[in-house]
Automatic annotation (TrEMBL):
Residues 146-561 form the GH26 domain. The lineage of its organism: Bacteria, Pseudomonadati, Bacteroidota, Bacteroidia, Bacteroidales. The active site is at E417, E506. GO terms for molecular function: mannan endo-1,4-beta-mannosidase activity. Residues 1-20 form the signal peptide. One of its GO terms (biological process) is substituted mannan metabolic process. Keywords: Glycosidase, Hydrolase, Signal. PROSITE patterns: GH26 (PS51764), PROKAR_LIPOPROTEIN (PS51257). InterPro entries: GH, GH26_dom, Glyco_hydro_26. This is Mannan endo-1,4-beta-mannosidase. It comes from the Bacteria. Belongs to the glycosyl hydrolase 26 family.
Amino acid sequence: MKMNKICAALFAAATFGLVACTDTDAKYTIPEVEAPVLVSTTPEANAAKVKRGEITIEVKYDKNVFFATKDLDKISFTGGTLISADVYGSSNVLTLTVNVPGRETACTLSIPEGVVLGPNKVPAPAVSLQFTTVALDKTPVMATSAKAMKLYDYLLANYETKSLSGMMAKESWNTDMSERVYQWTGKYPAINTFDYGHLAWSVAGANWINYGDITPVKEWADKNGIVSCMWHWNVPKEAPADYITLWSGEQDMPADWSQSVQLNNDAAKAIFATAKVGDVVRVAVKDVEEGAQAAFKHGSTWAGITPEYEYFDITGDFTMPITEDILTVLKENGLIVGGHHYVATGIYLEGEGITGVPDLGTGYAFYKDETNFDASNALIEGTWENKFFVQDLASVAGYLKLLKEADIPVLWRPLHEAAGKWFWWGKDAASFKAIWIAMFDYFKAQGLDNLIWVWTAETGDEDWYPGDQYVDIIGSDIYSKDVETCASRYVAISATYGNKMITLSECGSVGKISEQWAAGARWSWFMPWYDGEEEDGTPIVHADEAWWKDAMEQSYVITRDQVPSME
C-alpha cells in the first residue's frame, strides 16, 4: 500500500509539471486602447466670470483616467495657487483645486501630455484651460441719473481701499444719531440712513411723521452727505373689514335733539373723498326707544343732507345710500348724524371694493409672527394682501419721487434680512424674490432712476438672491459678533457674490472697525443701528463713543467732509 501511494504521488507531480510548462509557453495579446479624449472642463474654456477665491476645476475625459499625486508639480497654474489635483475613485474626471484671490485675473491651467493616463497607461494629450475671474459690475442695475451714476462710481473707486462711515436715523426720519457721532468725534458719518417704516402713519397725516417733508434728507444731501433709505414695511395684522369706520363709540341722542356725531373734519372728508355713488353710510345703534327718529344733516348748514333725511323714524340700525348729490355734499362739507331716543355706537362707509383702514395704534406689524399677511398672496389680484401691497408701493414710490425731483441719489435697501424669516416678506424664497422683482419693475416704470439697490444676505441663502440684474450691492446685518466672525462673513459673501460690492449694512455690538479691517473685512460702508431702550428702560447701545472714535481715526474710513459733490 505504501509503495502504491508513493507512485501515485510521483505521477501527479509529473503531470502538474507538464501542465505548468504548457502555461508558461502560452502568449496573450494586450488589446490596444486609444488615448483619453477631453470632453469638457468646468469652468468652461475662456469663461469670464469665474468666482474668485478657492475654485474647483474639473477636467472630464471620455474614459476613466489615472493621476499620481506625486506629479502635482508637473501641472502649472498661473493667476493663483494650485492646491491639489486628484482622480477620486474610478472616474473619468480629474479634479483640481486652485486659489485665485483677485478679481479680473487671467488664469491658465496647463496639464502636459502624459501627466494624466488612460487605461493601460496610455498617455492623455496635453490640456490648456484659460479663464478669468469675475469683475465688479461697473454699471448699476437701474440708476441712470447723473448723480446716482457718480455715486455708484465713487463707491466702486473706493471699494476695498476705503470704507464709508454710516449711521441709522433714530425713529426713521432725522439725523439725530449722526449729530451725536459728530459730538463724540468731531466728524459726521458719510451716510445717514432713513426709514419709511411709518408709511401708514405718514399717509394718514399723523402730526409726528411726514415723509412728504424731505427737509432732513435734503439738508443732509446738500452737505454732500450720502442718503440711504430702507423700509420696515408695516402691513395690517389681519384682513381688514369690508367697510371703513368713520366713527365708533357711544353717543346718546336725547329727546331734545341736543347731541350729534359730527363728521365734518378733514379726516372724515378725506374718507368721503374715496366714496362713490352706490356706497352706503350705515349707523349702528342700541337702546332704541319707541318713537325714535334720526337725521343725516349737511356738514355745514345742519339742514337735512336731502329733504327725505331731515328726520325719519327708526327701530334699529339705519342707512343712507349715496347718490350723486349726496356724494358732492359729503366730499365738500362732511356729515352730521343726529336724532333722539337712541344711542349711536358706530358709523361706517360700506360698498363694493371698500376696505377698512387698520387701527394705527395696534393694527400694523412687520414681524411675521404678528401678522396674518401672507407674502405669497401679495401679487395675487383680488386678495387683501395684494390691495395693500399695491397701495403701499404707490405711496412709497411717491415719497421716493420727491427725492428724485430734488436730484438726490439713494442707496435703497428694502426687504432686508428676508432669509432670517422673522419679517413677513421672509415667508419663503420664491415669494420673496417675486416681491423684490415686482417692486423693482414697478419703481423702474415709475422712473425712479436715482436708486442704487442693496440686497441683504444672511449666510447660505443663495436661493433667496433676486439675481444680478436686480441687485447692485450685497449687504450683511451683523449683531453681537466678534471680529473673526465679521471678517469670515465678509470673505464668504464676497466669494459668493464676487461681482458685487459688499457692505456692513447694519451692525451692533461688533468688533472695532480697525480690527475688522485688519482681519480682512473690507466693507464698502458700515452702519451701526441707533441706540434705544429695553421695555424696562435698560439702555441698548449698539456702538459706543469708544467704538466710533476708533472708526473715525482710521485713515481708510471716509467721513462726510471727505465725500465729494456728485454734481
